[in-house]
Task: structure prediction
Amino acid sequence: MGQRSLKPITPGTRHYSVSTFEEITKHEPEKSLLKPLKKSGGRNNTGRITSRHRGGGHKRKYRIIDFKRNKLNVPATVIGIEYDPNRTARIALLEYEDGEKRYILAPDKLKTGDTVITSPEAEFKDGNSLPLRKIPSGLYIHNIEMKPGKGGQLVRSAGTSAQVVASDDKYTQVKMPSGEIRMFPSICYATLGVVSNKDHEKTIWGKAGRTRWKGVRPQTRGMVMNPIDHPMGGGEGTSKSGGGRQHPSTPWGKYTKGLKTRKKGKLSDKYIVRKRKGK
Result:
């Protein structure tokens, strides 16, 4: 699990790195756990673009991931570690004792042949899933549920992890990757360990085409547009004026730097013990 730099035989490969994929042990996906993935191009159900700079990209099929881990007290063996084009982390294919197969997010130290289980009495081993109240303080976790039984929603991208800070019968305090300390219901489940592929953040994309493969289209800076197209447009040359020293903003005039976008008095505020900026 690391990064490999390419020899600069073309301009695109001069600053180009790619994962070594050394942790991948299974190269063909499980067909029973695949489903079609249709591209939206950033458009909603009426055909209007609601998310800009999206479109194209390589064809993919979605791997059905078991975020709920709701097969209790049934051991499962890891058949293989696979690449998933839909996420930054690696995924692990499990086969349960009754023959059922499921994909889960692969923790960093999970290997082929390992055994994992979802149980309140499971041992503290990477890949096992337990209720938060059963996890000792200081252990690293991922795939955390926000509502009991809904499935893991937080801490799922490559190399991320949260840490259990304190726990009681009702709530468990967890330090998130952002530094925020947040309370979760103690009966919510989480998986032990750090998410795999921690070197993903070191990837150097190297060329524009590689971003297009991911389905991301080019973006035009507002400063080079005309005043009618963007609040920051206009002026002679690379003008910073944009209609009178315009603060960096979106095409619709909303500030993009420094503006707090979280609503005041939000219901979930009562679960935040310490904000991510330590205030």
